[in-house]
Amino acid sequence: MTGTSSSPGSFFEEHGVENEDIRIGDSAVPFGLIRVSNPTVGVGGAYGTWGESCDNARLPSVIQHQLGQALPESDLMELDQLGFLNRHLTPELSEPEHVELEIEVGARLLRRAAAANGWDPAEVDAVLIGVSIPIIPDYVDQIALRAGIPASALKVTVHKACDGSVGSLHLALNPTLAAPGQLNIAETLYGKKVLLGGIEGLTRGLRFSRDKNALQLFGNGAGVIGVVPGKTMKFLTGKSHEVFDEDGVLALHMYYPHSGRREPGRSLVEVSQKGQSIRVAGLMHEPEDGASIAMAGPMGMVKLFVRSGVQVVSDVYQAYQALMQRLGETPRIAVAIVHHANYKINKLKEKQLANLGIKFPMPWLLSEFGNVSAASNMIAFMRQLPKLKPGDHVLIDGFGAGTYYDVLAVEMGA
Fold this sequence. Notes:
The chain is of the alpha+beta class and about 425 residues long. It has a single domain, classed as Thiolase/Chalcone synthase (Peroxisomal Thiolase, Chain A, domain 1, 3-Layer(aba) Sandwich), CATH 3.40.47. Helix content is about 30%, strand content about 25%. The chain is built from 10 helices and 17 strands. It has a 9-stranded mixed sheet with strand order 1-2-3-9-8-6-7-13-12, with helices on both faces. The chain has a 4-stranded mixed sheet with strand order 10-17-16-15, with helices on both faces. A two-stranded antiparallel sheet has the order 4-5.
């Protein structure tokens, strides 16, 4: 695993960023995207962020403005040690302006991601997006419509917190995930043009939060890739797993439809479909005070995610090794793309996996965004994409509040 950069510069200042403003009422909201393409494997995408850039040094004054009081010195996190040097924050807007901003962000992202694959939006067959705190219930439908994607395209929204984008990818590639009576998304999308990823306006969602940890950790971010399942990205093996967060170590308000029921022996995930739109909604332990989020400190996150996370990765890797043995091939994980919850979590997972004899590169690739939830896996993947070659195997590890895990191994195509 690589370390973190020492430069806390804004993402907007990086090489290759396409910067522009989104006009919202009297405000001009900074917006930047990078397009990435690797023609040798046939995959491209776009990632970026929006809002005011804020480094670690300035963050305490921003939080003080929101809370009306300064955070005690003892509550300030060592963010650089957690891998985060900068993040981007949504400005103060009216509710309709927030809706307009995030629809425009999503539409621009989809158009750029399609272009990175050489596709016209009218050619796209499906859009699958992970989003933790949606601004409106039909967000994915609205951004697809504005981007020029046909109404006939399948739209899938995945609410599994930080696991949402990997959950989307898993649904698009693994036909065994479909429950009886549900549309088999992977079979439906095989060989078709699919845009998928995560879009997270988290700092808009934190307007009503007083959680000292969440206000320091999270930022805005988005990443969408284009794949042709079975051709440019092939499913090898994977596992979807859930363990309900009984204690509410990372509690998250459900800003999306869910019955809130827990039934013994049944999944915490509810799936609903209306026309060409599907919603995959995970049950969350919600904050008792009605806030958007309530979280324990870094050690609480370690306990929540590492033990089960290491087990799921281990299970998938063992299944992957067995598959390679059956095929008479040598295991060849080129890189693991792990959700960037924080650097220490990933470092501890790497150490515990190594103790089990499981070793592959797990680079830390996001320092200038903060924790961007479901967007992080896709941004990290695109930052590795130029190095990938046809036939490379990639392990993708997603996990999020709830608690949900999706881990899968894929082969890059041509």
